[in-house]
Amino acid sequence: MRMRLQQIELPLAFEKLLPTRIPAEVCKTIMKWPLKWQRNILLTRALAGEEIPDWLLKPIDYSFRPASYWDAEDLRQLVANIKGAERKKIALRLIAEGRLDEAEGIVLADTLSERERTIAGQLHPALMGGEYLPDYESGEVEIARVTMASTTQDVISIRTHPQPGGIGFRVVDEYGSSFTIEPSFAKRPLTLSQLIRLIDTGEGDKMGPIGLGVIQINFECSEEPAEDYADFMDFSSEFYPDLGRHYWFATQRWLEQNRCP
C-alpha cells in the first residue's frame, strides 16, 4: 500500500531561532524557498550545524518546461538514450570534464549487442542495469529515468515520442511491465511539476509504483531502518536538471516520516 506523504509544519518559534544559529546569507537564501516543507528540511539541517551544499540552496522552478525534446540544447541531451546506467554515467562524466571526444563507441551506443550485454553482466551484475530496457521506437527519447541500487541496478525509463497533434509518453522497465501513467499525451513538453506527477502517480502491473512508493513497499516488507533506503533510488534527467533535487527533498521527507523515534 502506498503511503500519502504529508507536509511537515514547524512552529513559528522555530524560525525565530534562525538569526543566532544560521549564517545570515544562508538564512536569507533558505527563507526564499517557496515550498515550506522543503524550507523546513533545509532549516533543520542548518540548525543541526550541517553544511548545506550550494546545489541545494537554489529554489526549484517547478514551472520549467524544455523547449523541445528533439532539438538538443546541450551535450547531455545527446546521450539521453544510452540505455546502460553505468555507460550513461561515464558519458555524462566525460561531458562534464570536457572529454566526450575520448569516449569509445561502446560507451555512447544507445543499445549493446547481446554478446556485449552478456560480457558486461559477467564482469559485474550492476553493469546490466538499463541494458535490458526495450529498444526505442522511431523518434523516441528518454526524458527521465529512475535507477535503483539493486543487485542488477534496475532502471525505469520515462520516454516520449512524436504523435499527431502533440507528444506521447510511455514508461518501460527491464521486466516487460505495463504502466499506467498520467498524462500519456500532451500538446507540448511537460513542466517539471507535470513530470513529477507522472512519476508519483504511475503504476506498473509487475513492479508497482514508479516513484518513492518503491522504497515504501520495500521498507514495509523488511526490518531494515528507513535510513538504509536513503540512497536506494536515483531520479535523473538530461532535460529536467532539477528533477534529482526535487526527489532528494522528497526522500528526506520520507525518511523523516519513517525514521524510528
Query: What is the 3D form?
Result: globular
Quick one: biggest sheet? 5 strands, antiparallel
Number of domains: 2
Give the C-alpha Rg.
Answer: 20 Å
State the distance separating the first and last CA atoms.
Answer: 22 Å
Provide the low-confidence segments as ranges.
Answer: 1-15
Helix content: 25-40%
Strand order of the largest sheet: 5-3-2-1-8
Strand coverage percent: 5-15%
What is the H/E order? Answer: HHHHHHHHHEEEEEHEEHEH
Based on DSSP secondary structure assignment, what is the total number of beta strands?
8
Decide which structural class fits the backbone.
alpha+beta
Mean pLDDT: 90
Tally the helices: what do you get?
A: 12
Structure description:
With 261 residues, this protein is α+β, with helices and mostly antiparallel strands. The protein folds into two domains: 12-57, no CATH class; 75-258, no CATH class. 37% of the residues lie in helices and 14% in strands. The chain has twelve helices and eight strands. The strands form two sheets. A five-stranded antiparallel beta sheet has the order 5-3-2-1-8. It has a three-stranded antiparallel beta sheet with strand order 4-6-7. A hairpin with a 2-residue loop joins strand 2 (155-163) and strand 3 (166-172). The chain is globular. Mean pLDDT is 90; it is low at 1-15.
